[in-house]
Amino acid sequence: MAFTQRHLLGLEGVPADEITAILDTAASFKEISERDIKKVPTLRGKTVINLFYEVSTRTRTSFEIAAKRLSADTINISASASSTCKGETLADTARNLEAMRPDAIVVRHPSSGACHLLARHLSCPILNAGDGCHEHPTQALLDLLTIRGHLGRIAGLTVAIVGDILHSRVARSNLHALRTLGATVRLVGPPTLVPPELRALGAELHTRLDEGVRDADVIMMLRIQRERQGANFFPTLDEYAQYFCLTEEAVRLAKPQVIILHPGPLNRGLEIASAVADGPYSVIMDQVTNGVAVRMALLYLLIARSKAEDALEPEALAEPSRRRTGGRG
Amino acid sequence: MDSAVTGNGARQVMDARAIERALVRVAHEILERNKDTEQLAFVGIRSRGVHLAERIRRAIQEIEAGTLVPFGVVDITLYRDDLDRGLQNPVVQGTDIPFAVDGRRILLVDDVLFTGRTVRAAMDALVDFGRPQSIQLAVLVDRGHRELPIRADFVGKNLPTSLGEQVQVRLAEVDGQDEVLIETVRER
Predict the structure, then answer these.
(1) Are strands B154-158 and A158-162 parallel, antiparallel or unpaired?
(2) In what side-by-side order are the strands of the sheet with B165-170?
(3) CA–CA separation, B174 vs B163, rounded Å?
(4) pLDDT, tens digit, for every residue of A166-206?
């Protein structure tokens, strides 16, 4: 068993065999969601907290369904309803949650590194559900599972990631994992939205859609994050669409068996044409299905690992105060 | 199982011929007990139970030509009762039951019957797929030391053991050859 992670904070630096172990486990979990009784007793009596400081429907629902299919109890906390409004710091919120003894905490936060901060303060596994512009590891893993499911491998493929790379945590997590597994990654978008530093992480950079998608095995479209476009990264949405909207014409430049991914929600007609989003190459709905399996696998692997660790360290149980102060360093 | 063996050498208790004969006898017993094979279905417990179930199924096909009993695989990892006990969980390989369980007479197959916990987990997994008419259990080796009220309906070989011993079923499909070994594992 190649899985040794304590938390899932990001995919940067996670070795290939660990990523493969997660994907293999996720693939075997898919069958559970096909059953009439979509539930296994694996995490019975365990508690998973979804702590969301940003709006999310898909990711939060996916994590909640994943936990429930493993029989864990889930609690959703959204920032608007929490004591954040009353001035509590993130670390204090986390300490209070930990005092209620959850078995895992899923966190989405607008600040990059928020999950790392929590992981330093808490001893239970932390799963990053998106932190600022940093990483969104479960999205990248479900993308990998979808690619592997359709094309049978990751190594040697050419993957074009198109859109607002600058603000995209999805792009960063995918870049790390795809490079680790041996794929060629092209980052495609207007120069203002494709940071040149990403070349240092092994990406090819393209500022023209046709060059970026030519002969690609996979095209991964990103959502234009209208909420983050205050600083005029491109003149108008119309002009962006004119140059970077994925049309059927652009798709024809890619390999004949190309697959098209999008993390959702779709801006139809802005970054992706409806004919493409609903067309034969689109695997967008498979991504959503695979998302549940990937999150089930991660909850299972991380919680099972932390329980195994507790059982192997009896002194940790004898000295609960050490755990409570996050003495793991 | 690959636990640390500091043993004094393994002793063979069944060779390939003995295993073959035991499985053919079990196949005859299954037919005798179940009369018709209409509602019968095999479910092998990962990983060696799967290969044993395939062999018994093939034996039945040879005894009664044309009888092809449906076949499924169960992975009990997600139904184990020891998540909190610090044991290394094996890689989840997935369950595959490609037939409707409702009303079937299920023949559960495993290599070694020991504490009964694996069989308990497998039965819990099975009933998540529906309501079988019955579940019967076939094992190659029953080594005793049950911790749950579970017994096998069909046994290849009863093998009295002590708790300090380890029984290893090796099958050609995974281990390169057929044999059953018994090993003394040093007490901890």
Answers:
(1) unpaired
(2) B11-14, B179-184, B165-170
(3) 26
(4) 999 999 999 999 999 999 999 999 999 999 999 999 999 99
> What H or E segment, with its residue span, contains residue B31?
helix B16-34
Cβ within 8 Å of residue B162, ≥6 positions away: none
Instruction: Break chain B into its structural domains and give their ranges.
Output: 4-184
d(C-alpha A193, C-alpha A190), whole Å = 5
Beta-carbon contacts of residue B2 (< 8 Å; ≥ 6 apart) = none
What is the SS3 assignment for A238? helix
pLDDT at position A325: 39
The pLDDT value given to residue B62: 92
The mean-pLDDT minimum among A236-240, A304-308, B83-87, B101-105 falls in: B83-87
Q: Does B128 touch chain A (CB under 8 A)?
A: yes
Domain B4-184 -> CATH class: alpha beta
DSSP A260-305: EE--S---BTTTB-HHHHTSTTB-HHHHHHHHHHHHHHHHHHHHHH
- For residue A38, the chain B residue with the least C-alpha distance is B128
Q: Token digits for B172?
A: 């050609």
pTM (two decimals): 0.89
Q: Is A28 in contact with B128 (Cβ distance < 8 A)?
A: no
Look at residue B3 and tell me whether its pLDDT is greater than 80.
no
The model's pLDDT over B127-137, given as tens digits with 9 standing for 90+, comes to: 999 999 999 99
pLDDT at B183 over 60: yes
Query: Which of chain A's residues have a Cβ under 8 Å away from the Cβ of B87?
Result: 308
Q: Which residue bears the tokens 């998302």?
A: A291
Q: Which residues of A205-238 are buried (b: 16+ CB within 10 A; e: fewer)?
A: bbbebeebbbebbbbbbbbbeeeeeeeebbeeee
Residues 6+ apart with CB under 8 A from B73: B43, B44, B46, B50, B94, B95, B96, B97
CB A19 within 8 A of CB A11: yes
Instruction: Name the residue facing A24 among B88, B91, B96 (closest C-beta).
Output: B91
Whether B91 contacts chain A with CB within 8 A: yes
